[in-house]
């Protein structure tokens, strides 16, 4: 039987991901909109993972404030997630450079424009991808690693609908740079499964939404921990595919799509600040509630540091005895 302990065990510097980010564990907290502020990012980093500030729901001045507060709250590495479709992305990039952020995760767009700019400033760049084709493009543009995000993930998602079980080994086979697995991961056992498939780290979003430090509304957090299998659906593929919890807003989107609504009609239905209404303000009826399928396995709101510890401990127990129920 193959000995799995050698590539996985240990802390600081034990694989290419921990070396790249200078973390204790290859556990990354995703930069979710309306959830990933400085409190969450710093708590994850202080616990030995990599915390990310989610800039997609922030005005430039707000992002600057969160970077400064995060730096005050942790001496450990942290980063910023930047959705490339953000309208003020040039301002976000400049703030990141000016504030000396060393790690940037880019998502929801082509990294070709901004990766060289960030790399020139000595910034580590990681791109979130949903296919091997996009992983290769990210590698060609100079990204240091990629996040292979499967169909199970919440928030913005790929149109290919490739599950993590297929996507992760496909991307690992396609590129030479390190691969971080995402989509459907909230436990140490799932982390081990991803790493057996060739990933060198995991990125978790939904698990950290249900944390004490997440800036999302408590109504949303409670809805997340009560979500069951089948309660989330990937929708709005004509715009930007996003996985949502079923509610009245989702029902109206589904009805519009069934009737053949145009892109403009869907944009009008989505309106402004729909995600803020749901996830930050706690409107569970009319708000957009973005979360991954793995929310069905999340049943408690915990401190972020405890989540990191629990995932790592379960990973090590599963590694020692992968067939034993924990």
Could you please describe the fold and organization of this structure?
The chain has 326 residues and is an alpha/beta fold. Helix content is 41%, strand content 14%. The chain folds into two domains: 5-215 and 299-320, TIM Barrel (Alpha-Beta Barrel); 218-294, no CATH class. It has 15 helices and eleven strands. A hairpin with a 6-residue loop joins β10 (232-235) and β11. α12 runs antiparallel to α13 (263-270). The model is unreliable at 1-6 and 9-13 (pLDDT under 50).
Summarize the topology:
Elements: H1 5-8, H2 16-21, E1 27-29, H3 38-46, E2 51-54, H4 60-73, E3 78-83, H5 89-98, E4 103-107, H6 115-120, E5 124-129, H7 132-141, E6 145-149, E7 155-156, H8 164-174, E8 179-182, H9 188-196, E9 201-204, H10 206-209, H11 218-225, E10 232-235, E11 242-245, H12 248-258, H13 263-270, H14 274-280, H15 304-320
Parallel strand pairs: 1-9, 2-3, 3-4, 4-5, 5-6, 6-8, 8-9
Antiparallel strand pairs: 7-11, 10-11
